[in-house]
Design brief:
Oligomer: homodimer
Radius of gyration of chain A: 15 Å
Order of helices and strands of chain A: EEHEEEEEE
Strand content of chain A: 35-45%
Shape of chain A: globular
Helix content of chain A: under 10%
């Protein structure tokens, strides 16, 4: 599992994609420990840059990401994780996907409805 | 178009997804100049960390990525670009997607066939 963690200071982007709908749900970062924890547990685990520690997605919300398949790219400096997303949405702002804004002209517009009330979860 | 380029030293991950098949084709990085060039030209432009300059995908191969939609995430520190990919594949190793390896047990296995001969293109 020889990934190239050195290129970006120990962290590689991890793209999380719904294995059924193929929607991209979120992008986080993993260090080698987070990647190994993801593989070992079958639950997506990131390295939180703001909290400076490992973070298993769903540990507070219950919105866990169950690993279905892991792929890497030609340079082995990024991973694509196909998941089953438990719960109504992965985004802490209440949306199915963190990518809920689309570029419209020169500004970002919210392009979908919330799927849950984050105040009741976080 | 107020993206947060500061969190990762001026560069944000740009996930490239086929707008039709929804396959994730590659992940690159953009600085603000690359992002603006992508929006202005309608062709995906990255910042190459190895060459330290802007790089419009396809400028040597012809395998251009035509922008269909651009989304950003809750933190505005990542973009998801839906594209029409011109040519037989985006990966310089001859595959449709750079994510041609899957984790199989503890090792990466090539999980698909090449779609073109890179020696004839690069």
């Amino acid at each position: 599992m020889d990934l190239d963690f050195d290129k970006t200071g120990g962290l590689i982007p991890a793209v999380i994609q719904d294995s059924q709908s193929q929607r991209v749900l979120m992008v986080g970062f993993m260090n080698e420990e987070a990647f190994r924890a993801t593989v070992a547990s079958g639950r997506v685990t990131f390295f939180s840059r703001s909290r400076n520690k490992l973070w298993t997605k769903g540990e507070s919300s219950g919105h866990t990401l169950v690993v279905k398949r892991i792929q890497t790219d030609c340079d082995k400096d990024c991973v694509l994780v196909q998941v089953e997303a438990l719960g109504p949405g992965v985004c802490h702002e209440g949306y199915e996907s963190c990518f809920f804004r689309s570029l419209d002209g020169a500004s970002w517009k919210v392009s979908e409805e919330k799927t849950y009330d984050p105040a009741k979860v976080y």
